[in-house]
Amino acid sequence: MTAEDRSALEQLIFSKEFLRTEDPGRKTQDIVFDLRTLKAVFESMKKFDIDYLDYPIMSGKESIVFKAYSKKKPIVVKIFKMSTLRFSNLYMYVQGDRRFEHEKKDRSRIVYLWARKEYVNLKTARECHINVPMPIGFHQNIIVMQYLGTRASPAPELRKSTIDMANAFSQVRESMRLLYTKAELVHADLSEYNMLIYRGKVYMIDFGQSVSIEHPSATIFLERDVKNVCNFFNKKEIKCNVNDLLSFVTGEVE
Ligand SMILES: Nc1ncnc2c1ncn2[C@@H]1O[C@H](COP(=O)(O)OP(=O)(O)OP(=O)(O)O)[C@@H](O)[C@H]1O
Ligand SMILES: [Mg+2]
What we know:
By secondary structure, the chain is of the alpha+beta class. Helix content is 38%, strand content 19%.
């Protein structure tokens, strides 16, 4: 192990993810990185020329998102937690998506596939001119992408932003329509949590679970996305009708 690897290891060990918490209710969240993941982190650092991991922007049950630096520029490193990603959940989004159907799907492979799937989905969305973070690469259960935010802080989620909501809504519906009609994808976890406001634009994030529009459950996922979006904007006093938005997104009406 080189000195650089050691310092990365130290960063991880001393990041709050590795420390025992005083709160007994959080016990299961204590240890999140198995050795395989640590190894994958070091390999990614080499592969993507990452200088160091700065700090965790967000740590959830299924992934941890780090701000990191590569060639002095901020980037994002998202690590899917091998231990807590629920296999049966993932399976539902992979099975039935022709792009990934023929892959072997044992536990670790499906998590790796998850990272690759998020990468591919982001790439497709970008190619269709949808505002999403530019994907940089993937390695095992890790995906590296463009950092959205300022030097001081990451871009706020839509729910916490001060953007004009009528403006945000018109951007969201256009992006949803492009995603469906051009990228031929359904996000499948779209909500005010998975949209960030960066330089006045709404960016969709979190594409691991996104499926092709041919997936047998695509319509159910799309309806759920549309409902989430309408619920949020209705609360913000922006009129959003589920059926209208559905027909707009699928390209049935102009
Ligand atoms: N590219 C990015 N730039 C800045 N902040 C980001 C970026 N990607 C993610 N984040 C922050 O990290 C949070 C979690 O990211 P994301 O939604 O991708 O993971 P998650 O909710 O844990 O997803 P999953 O369900 O796939 O585990 C976001 O809500 C956002 O605040
Ligand atoms: Mg999310």
